[in-house]
Amino acid sequence: MHPPSLPDRSIEAYATVTGTDRLERLRELAEILSDVRILHVNSTASGGGVAELLRSIVPVCNDLDVDTDWLVMDADDDFFEVTKAVHNGLQGDSEPLTDEMKATYREVTVANATEIDGEYDLVLAHDPQPLGMLERLEERLPDAPIVWRCHVDLTDPVAEYLAFVSEYTDPIDHAIVSRSAYAAIDAPETSIVYPSIDPVTAKNRSLDRTELAAERDHLDPLLFDAPVVSQVSRFDPWKDQFGTLEAYRAAKSAVPDLQLALAGGMAGDDPEGLELYEQVADEAVDDPNVHVLTDLPDMTINALQRLSDVVVQKSLREGFGLVVSEALWKRTPVVGSTVGGIPLQVEDGRNGYLVDPDDAVGAGDRIVDLLEDDERRRSFGDNAREHVREQFLLPRQLVDLLEIFVDALELDT
């Protein structure tokens, strides 16, 4: 286990983007938790939504004087091959689960659990990777509630994989999921908490004209004097970059100069990423208006989402899909699929459009609808910004999270 490096973050930085009542509530909860020490555990420090959330949540909690640590598992590619199979199985698609895979999972999780020697009042484990650590942590910290935060889509899990992870869930005192449909794990209590974006990070903060122009240059050879549609996602089969390519091709028949940017990174715990990136790049190689981009800096992603005319998120399964809120926050309408947390973010006909996950032609039609109506795009963008401000910014998620901590620790309020 190792602690990742963290940025400085102050709760005061959010005063311009969220209401004072919400910030005051955070301070009240932090005061209640002032004598508590909390540990977050996950499997990677970079490249995925969980790591991105923790990179903001942990320093803000410490700024509020809620003593919070974050430890990342030490594991090799064999373990991540197994946990990627578990992730896929929990989302409805799987390879056979072998005894060797189970043994690898147990060996790595137990080894990591033995490395935690600090004293904590509450442990929050994220996703399936650290579940195998919980029995050991329960033995060593018998008075500390264990909270499990599930970020994946559990609406249709493969029974074999659900049974496998359920072998490790007995120590859980409180589960947190992003939608009620994901409550597939038995726990004494389950809460629904929407994830959030951090509006003060390089990826989401406002950019002035000089910054935007500089980042635009970094996106060459994209030409922003012609229409641009983009998708920002990890290179993962569930994100369906191939379906987005199909939607782009359908839209291009009506908008001949349309360009597509498929931008994504490689999560540290996802061994499929590079292979899928190469497949997508190969599929797009013959079209000079399709640009497959990887590992762009956060400021460049910020600019791409702002400069795009439409953002697409055509996922087949989606734990939540915060890239949707990232685009909406920047007043860019989104065409998304009706899976996971996307319909919570995209209000169909108000800040974007929803299509069935296998309807690439329908997605293309909706892209065209937006590209051909400048006033609609502006109106959708204004609606999008306010929807995210109310529902999907970090201070709201922190209030929900700290309220769960207070409840789990049975502290007086």
UniProtKB/TrEMBL annotation:
Residues 40-183 form the Trehalose synthase N-terminal domain. InterPro entries: Glyco_trans_1 (IPR001296), Trehalose_Metab_GTase (IPR052078), TreT_GT1 (IPR049438). One of its GO terms (biological process) is glucose metabolic process. Residues 226-386 form the Glycosyl transferase family domain. GO terms for molecular function: glycosyltransferase activity. Keywords: Carbohydrate metabolism, Glucose metabolism, Glycosyltransferase, Transferase. Pfam families: Glycos_transf_1, TreT_GT1. Belongs to the glycosyltransferase group 1 family. Glycosyltransferase 4 subfamily. Homodimer. This is Glycosyl transferase family 1.
